[in-house]
Specification:
With 133 residues, this protein is of the alpha+beta class. It has one domain (3-112). The chain contains 6 helices and 5 strands. It has helices spanning 3-6, 34-41, 45-57, 63-66, 87-96, 100-114; strands spanning 8-13, 19-24, 31-32, 67-74, 77-86. The strands form 2 sheets. It has a 3-stranded antiparallel sheet with strand order 3-5-4. The chain has a two-stranded antiparallel sheet with strand order 1-2. Helix 2 (34-41) packs across helix 3 (45-57) and helix 3 (45-57) crosses helix 5. The protein starts with a helix and ends in a 19-residue tail after the last helix. It comes from termite gut metagenome. This is Bro-N domain-containing protein.
C-alpha cells in the first residue's frame, strides 16, 4: 500500500521553529503502522503496544472496525495480528499516552473540535420565492 493511500498525520517544524500538525486524510481517516505511531508520538514500541492493548482490552473499539489485521483462530480463541490502525485509534492513543507529542496532538484535536463550523451559503437554494397568504 502506498503512503499516499494511507493519508498522513505528522508533527513537523515550520519556518518559525514552531511544531505544527499536518493532517491529510484519505476518505476521512488515516492508517498508521506501529513504527509510524512510535514516530508520531515520540515513544518507544513498548509504549505503543501497551496503549494499543489497553484500548482494545477496554473494548472501546472493535478490532475489525478500526484495524487492518490478520485474524488467527485457535479453537474458540481469536487472536489479531494488527498491522495498521485508523484515526479512531490514533486519537484514543493521544489521550492514553504521556509524551510531548501526545500532548500536542490532544491540544490540536480539541482545537479542531472547538473550531466554529462555517456554513456554505452557496449550497442553499436561494432561487425559491415565498409569499404570505
Amino acid at each position: 500500500m502506498k503512503t499516499t493511500e494511507k493519508g498522513r498525520l505528522s508533527i513537523t517544524t515550520d519556518r518559525n521553529n514552531k511544531q505544527v500538525v499536518v493532517f491529510q486524510p484519505i476518505n476521512n481517516t488515516i492508517w498508521m503502522n506501529r513504527n509510524e505511531l512510535c514516530e508520531l508520538f515520540g515513544v518507544y514500541m513498548q509504549a505503543t503496544n501497551v496503549a494499543i492493548d489497553a484500548i482494545f482490552k477496554a473494548k472501546i473499539f472493535r478490532v475489525e472496525d478500526v484495524c487492518k489485521c490478520q485474524r488467527h483462530v485457535k479453537g474458540n480463541r481469536i487472536n489479531y495480528d494488527i498491522t495498521e490502525v485508523n484515526l479512531d485509534v490514533v486519537v484514543a492513543m493521544a489521550f492514553h499516552l504521556d509524551s510531548p507529542n501526545a500532548m500536542l496532538l490532544r491540544k490540536w484535536f480539541m482545537e479542531q473540535l472547538m473550531r466554529p463550523k462555517r456554513i456554505d451559503f452557496s449550497l442553499l437554494n436561494t432561487t425559491q420565492n415565498y409569499s404570505l397568504n
